Amino acid sequence: LPDVWSPKPLRGKKILLTAGATFEAIDPVRGITNISSGQMGMALARACRAAGAEVTLIYGQIQTALPPGLVHTEQAVSAEAMYRAVHRHIAAQDVFIAVAAVADYKVKNSSSRKLKKDGTGQPPQIELAENPDILASVAALPQPPFCVGFAAESDNVLEYARAKRLKKNIPMLVANQVSLAMGKPTNQITIIDAQQETAFPESSKPQAAAQIVARLAELLGA
Ligand code: CTP
Ligand code: CA
């Protein structure tokens, strides 16, 4: 699959992506995050741009460089900050691709001061509250962009992924096994949409991104 597309199948399309891990503060120095590195999101942002799209990227914590040539990039570290950033930019978009590993819960009783051990040996209680589902909220807009989700699962990958696509009411979802994808430079994806399910062999994340762009372009053209 191409690195340089000719003709460019996403020419002129406005695409917003989320990428990386969110971080939910416990106190000013501690928090809850996950093992997403941002590599898949960056590879996909780069591939969308290479295919001619105007790319906006909202990212959390990443362990990789931002690709060049994007229209707008913005860091939004907590799930709520990412939700707000996405909704500030979503109206103009043709496509939304949710690659970020978003925390499902935030810390309800986060502290503005660093927590101290109180000397009793009793651990502090961390209370959680549910975060908004960014992808589901975008898919539920009155005139949603074409939405692409990801599902990283440890088990029952395809079964959970199919259900996730239907539950979030999105046309396209990329499924993968956590252990073959998250934090790694490679991935093994299955693209699930209303017409077909395509399982690809293990590849680099840039190659996986090109496979996703190719199917996205087909579905947008159809
Ligand atoms: N997602 C999102 N906002 C959230 C949670 C998830 O935008 N608060 C997006 C992710 O970016 C991904 C898709 O939804 O594209 C699926 O995320 P996942 O965590 O696999 O699904 P959940 O619906 O959170 O279900 P669960 O974690 O229980 O499997
Ligand atoms: Ca989740």
Automatic annotation (TrEMBL):
Residues of the DNA/pantothenate metabolism flavoprotein C-terminal domain: 10-218
Record-listed CTP binding positions: 104, 114, 132-135, 150, 164, 168
An example molecular function term from Gene Ontology annotations: FMN binding
Pathways involved: Cofactor biosynthesis; coenzyme A biosynthesis; CoA from (R)-pantothenate: step 2/5; Cofactor biosynthesis; coenzyme A biosynthesis; CoA from (R)-pantothenate: step 3/5
Keywords associated with the record: Decarboxylase, Flavoprotein, FMN, Ligase, Lyase, Magnesium, Metal-binding, Multifunctional enzyme
The keyword Metal-binding is assigned to this record: yes
Reactions performed catalytically: (R)-4'-phosphopantothenate + L-cysteine + CTP = N-[(R)-4-phosphopantothenoyl]-L-cysteine + CMP + diphosphate + H(+); N-[(R)-4-phosphopantothenoyl]-L-cysteine + H(+) = (R)-4'-phosphopantetheine + CO2
Name of the protein: Coenzyme A biosynthesis bifunctional protein CoaBC
Residues of the full protein shown: 174 to 395 of 395
